[in-house]
Specification:
This protein is an alpha/beta fold. The chain is built from 13 helices and 17 strands. The strands form 4 sheets. The chain has a 6-stranded mixed β-sheet with strand order 2-3-1-4-5-6, sandwiched between helices. A 6-stranded mixed β-sheet has the order 8-9-7-10-11-12, with helices on both faces.
């Protein structure tokens, strides 16, 4: 298994900046305002052909009155428990804080050996600031600038010195990647509570204060012999409601989570029903081609006379017609009611989301569909479809070669999508359909696929009919 490295330190010392440099990403939100990172944040880092899991944590404050301080301390302790290596990040500009002393004492109490990094040291002449930190009893602090990269190579060489190179650490068989599931919705809809219920632990900070989660945080879980990567995201508010700069970044992170997920769980509050903002969040997921599942949370809080599943499904079908294929589940993350149905539903959506169809079968479907309902005329000529193929999965995307691609009406496009859904049993996944113009008579040779015998007979019959009419 890859070793786990945890970054710890008091607020605003540059842990998230260092996380981004080590993972070569921008997954952690970076801002001058302290306390931005509240949950553990996971990422993969590589150095000199050695790979490890990196954990970013919230700023450690030992005796603060902030409502989230106790939650953050708990998350830091959980990160330390699971870490093989610990990196203590200190601030070279502001010097030693009593929070730093408390954290060093905590690490020693836990029996953790740790690397000490003094951040915000931009050049050799600034390394004189290191002398102050020897008062913490640290033997060899590393000078570093997480923002500019000064001293980064020396630190990474020391950190990974005892790690096993990737070639020696590879298993005989590489397991199939986990299904990536993003949990999205408005603030305070219960996203973190749901993930905690699915994980069976208090993995996420949960609070009644809207906007608790700011980063998009990943958690790996196994259920029924399969692996799932759960991505908790910040609540997505209306643009007019997004006033704090840091919250704008959180919304961007939530949208980026939709870019990389396979299935999106669109969470909304049962007591409020499906709102315009819920539909807008669903639209973000639909635009990015995710598989989608509507999760009606807090079902246990509804009065008995209002627990009407058909009514909920009808409201979603009315408000979010573009996701009419998405299944709907009514759950309670608090009590666990019907939460066990989520993973099987994710499996069903994912199976269709990644399904593949043979070219000959697809062409027969299109032939039958166009024979049943002919396409319209364009400038007095009939629109014709010559060839169909599936060009990708996740979601299924189909390409149709036609004589007038721009003239296909949206209603006929919808008709073809519905015919494909019905014939292939793809009733739970988004489908993408694109039309390409026929280039001369080379379509079949370019595809290296001959037309089906049924299509040939049909075309020959039409030619004979035209000849008889001409006589």
């Amino acid at each position: 298994m890859k070793p786990v490295v945890a970054l710890v330190g008091r607020p605003n010392v540059g842990k998230s900046t260092l996380f981004n440099r080590m993972t070569r990403s921008r997954d952690a939100i970076v801002d001058d305002m302290p306390g931005v990172t509240r949950d553990r944040h996971f990422g993969e880092a590589r150095w000199d052909n050695k790979a490890f899991i990196l954990v970013d944590t919230g700023g450690f404050i030992s005796n603060d009155t902030d409502a989230f301080a106790a939650h953050i301390r708990e998350q830091v302790l959980l990160a330390l428990e699971g870490a093989d290596h610990v990196v203590l990040v200190l601030d070279g500009k502001s010097g030693i804080s009593y929070y730093d002393r408390d954290l060093v004492n905590l690490l020693r109490e836990k029996g953790k050996t740790f690397f000490c990094v003094v951040n915000k040291i931009d050049s050799e002449r600034h390394e004189t600031a290191l002398h102050d930190f020897y008062a913490l009893g640290i033997e060899e602090p590393f000078p570093l600038s997480a923002e500019h990269g000064y001293g980064f190579s020396d630190f990474m060489e020391a950190l990974t010195e005892d790690m096993i190179p990737m070639e020696e650490n590879l298993a005989d068989e590489v397991p199939e990647g986990p299904i990536k599931v993003a949990v999205v919705g408005r603030p305070n809809a219960g996203k973190s509570s749901l993930i905690n219920r699915l994980l069976g632990e208090d993995r996420m900070v949960v609070s009644e204060v809207a906007g608790t989660t700011r980063d998009a945080v990943d958690s790996l879980v196994r259920f029924g012999g399969k692996s799932y990567l759960l991505i908790d995201t910040a609540g997505i508010r209306r643009k007019g409601k997004v006033t704090e700069r840091i919250e704008k970044f959180s919304v961007i992170q939530a949208l980026r989570a939709l870019e990389r997920c396979d299935v999106a769980l669109i969470l909304f509050d049962a007591s409020e029903g499906i709102t315009d903002q819920d539909v807008r969040v669903a639209g973000y997921a639909a635009d990015r081609g995710c598989g989608c599942i509507f999760i009606c949370n807090k079902w246990d809080l509804l009065p008995a006379e209002e627990k009407d599943v058909k009514r909920v499904k009808a409201a979603i079908a009315m408000e979010a017609k573009f996701l009419a294929f998405a299944p709907v589940l009514t759950i309670s993350a608090l009590t666990g009611q019907r939460v066990n149905q989520i993973f099987p539903t994710v499996d069903a959506v994912y199976a269709q989301y990644t399904s593949q169809t043979g070219t000959s079968h697809l062409n027969r479907i299109i032939e039958e569909a166009t024979a049943r309902t002919e396409p319209s005329l364009h400038n007095g000529k009939r629109i014709k479809f010559y060839f169909a193929s599936q060009i990708r999965t996740a979601p299924p995307r189909f390409s149709l070669v036609t004589n007038y691609p721009d003239a296909v009406h949206f209603s006929y496009r919808r008709y073809l999508v519905n015919q494909i859904r019905e014939a292939l049993g793809l009733d739970l996944t988004p489908i993408r359909l694109e039309f390409k113009e026929r280039s001369g008579r080379t379509d079949y040779s370019e595809k290296k696929t001959k037309p089906s015998p049924e299509l040939v007979r049909k075309l020959q019959a039409k030619r004979r009919q035209r000849k008889r009419r001409n006589r």
